[in-house]
Write a structure and sequence with these properties.
18% strand
């Protein structure tokens, strides 16, 4: 298996924690970054200067990587950020899919969101559009669909855990509650590491129950 990985969003909430885990497992991580943000990348990664919103700035820098991880996105999604979702989330996934496809990437990994009714409908719609772009590309892909990721600075939803437990026990709401359950940052990192180590043939969807069942 090719052990070279190209990643966007490497300085973000998940990316800066995922990169060290991949390096510990002997993967060589090529991390896309604007020039002024290179110093924020985890040590051990190989900086790649470029603009995540313009595939032409990094397409020729993806090889020899055969795995591409797309993590660019607007932090703390809310309805007030719907224009940013279009300008950043949508544009970046479009450019990444195009660049990856034209660089011979064999496995595209994308963090999407749990599907269904959402408090942030615009965010869900953009992520679904990203999934469709990947599907149309024909690349083998892993789509990871968390609802909310619990971790440093993101602990407030723990207040709802008792309600989740009750809803999971009710037949009418049990399955939906599981699909929209909370996952930890550690579980998300484990899911991404698993995706890298075990590339699929075709498109693989990992929803909340699947994320929770994975361990290092």
């Amino acid at each position: 298996m090719n052990n070279e990985i190209f990643i966007t969003g490497g300085t973000g909430y998940i990316g800066k924690r995922l990169i060290p885990e991949l390096i510990k497992r002997d993967f060589k991580v090529h991390a896309l970054s604007r020039r002024e943000s290179i110093g924020k990348l985890p040590s051990g990664s190989k900086p790649v200067t470029g603009n995540a919103l313009d595939g032409s700035t990094f397409t020729d820098k993806i090889s020899p990587c055969k795995t591409f991880i797309q993590l660019v996105g607007v932090p703390h999604p809310s309805p007030s950020k719907k224009d940013l979702f279009k300008k950043i989330d949508l544009v970046s996934v479009h450019e990444s899919v195009w660049a990856a496809k034209n660089s011979g990437v064999e496995h595209f990994i994308y963090v999407s969101v749990a599907q269904g009714r959402s408090l942030v409908k615009e965010y869900r719609q953009i992520r679904m559009h990203g999934e469709e772009l990947i599907r149309q590309s024909g690349m083998n892909a892993t789509i990871i669909r968390p609802w909310y990721v619990i971790g440093p600075g993101h602990y407030w939803p723990l207040l709802f855990l008792p309600a989740y437990k009750i809803l999971e026990l009710i037949p009418l709401t049990g399955e939906k509650a599981k699909l929209f359950g909370l996952v930890t940052l550690k579980q998300m990192i484990a899911a991404l590491v698993m995706a890298v180590k075990q590339p699929p043939t075709g498109m693989r969807i990992v929803s909340v129950p699947g994320i929770k069942n994975l361990q290092f």
